[in-house]
Amino acid sequence: MKKLSVRTATKEYPVITGSGALKEIVPLLLNMKPAVTSLMVISDDNVAPLYLSDVTAELSKTALPVYDHIVPHGDQEKSFQNYFSCQTAALEFGLDRHSVIIALGGGMVGDLAGFVAGTYMRGIRFIQVPTTLLAHDSSVGGKTGINHHLGKNMIGVFHHPEAVIYDAEYLKTLPQHEIRSGFAEVIKHAIIKDRSFYRYLHENVRSLDDLGYGTRLEEAITKGIQIKAEIVQEDERENGVRALLNFGHTLGHAIEAELGYGKWTHGDAVAAGMLFALRIGASVYGTSLIEDSEINEWLQELGYPQLPASLSPEKLLSRMKKDKKAHSGTVKMVLLPEIGKAEVREVPDPLLIEELHKFLAAK
Fold this sequence. Notes:
Rossmann fold, Dehydroquinate synthase-like, alpha domain, 2 domains, two-stranded antiparallel ribbon, 11 strands, zinc, 3-dehydroquinate synthase
């Protein structure tokens, strides 16, 4: 097991990764101050049948009351309806200000449960227990929230967990499309911050099978978390460099919203968004990176899908203008002067429309 620390101006908490990491949760809970009074596990109907009984059995060692609440799976379920159902359950179980919520699941569950914790009684503590590769990104950094049909992650709060317990055993049941989705965020971290990590991934992971479920996968998770933790430490509230973590997300979020949440995985949409950002970067900087075609071919080899040609450039642009980085109707994107370095740049509408038409027509 490995233990990292995430430090920000307002919070410091551990991220524990590796097989058997769940065993660290009981001593962590028993050592919290003020003392914990009760626990509520929020999970979804895919994860709960696999892992809920094991987690609640471990939590029962605290001798605290342990409750659970199950929501439907899928990113479309990060909704007002499920937020309300979780709050109702917390009230019915009698959770108080010293209770702790456990988020057991992927990024959707983590975002939803974190938002519930951040707003229940004006904020109680919670712990992330991720079960997907994608959640290596979303479980760290304190962003929580739900979707609105007009935009992804538009309603939420910054609320850091007390800890992230990332037991690698939970990744063994993931289907390949979920591994692919999570690996997109690993690639993103490498591209924006660490050229040598990008080269390592490109040379050693030529298919998703190359990741496996052992050392290489755990190394990728740990390095991705380290990169995100460094950025979050520098910019907790996304007033500066933290915005760079949105590389690929401006179009990616627009794709998810336009197709309907859950139709494409988040990672597949981000992968398409990264390729589009590389195209925009080539226009803005007047030159393409040596790695542009390399990244394009690599993502195809890894099985990331091409966008449906039926998508409307105009509708995608309208979605992009609702991105949190947009300002006064002007789209801002994370672009790359070079691999390992990134910056936020304003991009004019005519260029976006022109490149969206080309991007959607490309085969």
